[in-house]
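User: I'm putting together notes for a lab meeting next week and I want to include a structural view of one of the chains we've been expressing. I don't have a solved structure, so I'd like a prediction I can at least talk through. The sequence is below, exactly as it appears in our construct file.
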Amino acid sequence: MPLVSMRQLLDEAAKGGYGVGAFNVNNMEQIQSIMEAARETKSPVIIQASRGARAYSQDRFLYHLMIAATEIYPEIPTVLHLDHGNSVETCKSAIDMGFTSVMMDGSLMADGKTPSSFEYNVDVTRQVVELAHAKGVTVEGEIGCLGGIEDGHGAGVDGLSHLTDPEQAVEFVKQTGLDALAIAIGTSHGAYKFSSKPTGETLKMARLIEIHNRLPGTHLVMHGSSSVPKDLQDIINQYGGKLKPTWGVPVEEIQLGIKNGVRKINVDTDNRLAITGAIRKVFMEKPEEFDPRSYLKPAREAMKKVVALRMTQFGQAGHAGDYAPIPLEEMARRYEAVAV
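Assistant: Thanks for the context. Below is the predicted structure for the 340-residue chain, given as structure tokens.
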């Protein structure tokens, strides 16, 4: 099965009332972990790469690894998505490379750090929509700013500093014509999201529900949605790590979001924790080990277990075979027909 558009996956998820996890990758082992989990759970999947990941792995390596994934797992509908594109040019480079979905994060200026104006956000997002839809590629945008920093991207502010305004969200969707909308409801990038289990004061699910009620036909996206399980933290610390106590987004809150329009859920930190814990365990228990395969195999398996669990919890498990992939050329024709 070729790479498919994210719009198709999210449309199908909306019909079925489930969410689809979007998992960040930097290397072959992470892609293999995700695809094995997808096969095990029979799930459609979104694999995403940040600008940092693209630089680390080099675009051509990453793209051909994804092509290999579609060849080895032909039964899995698979999206290659650009996470947090910082400019029209960055998004265009991903589209030209063969990404089937891009995020134009115009909530920040091109430096990826400075909060932008509403007008700037609308302008750059609309430009990307025009470029992408002409090729059948999906566009995600963001209104409001998440907390924290990931891969050098983020304002580095508290997650409650720039929450999404529901009225602005409605206007933003209307003026840009995007496919999916990432909203800021108190979550943050990275492991250190909350200093205690989040409550209604720190994770604004009521605001998410209000936005969904105003935009019932728009696919919502939750960024910074790793749950940061204590057992994964404990493994790292047991084998020489020094993670400080931290809390992520409870799975039950994500499931509430899925019931209220969330169709894409970004997960990265949980997978990083799983991989790091497995590698630390090998190094501590077998200090003589030097073969990368000896520690990357258990790391790959640990990440696969986390991804498979999230796929089940988000409801996407069992839905890989529900529909035939729509070619990007056909998606482009559909966008053009709607525009006319």
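A couple of points you could mention at the meeting. The longest strand covers residues 78-85. The first helix runs from residue 6 to 16.

User: Perfect, that's what I needed.
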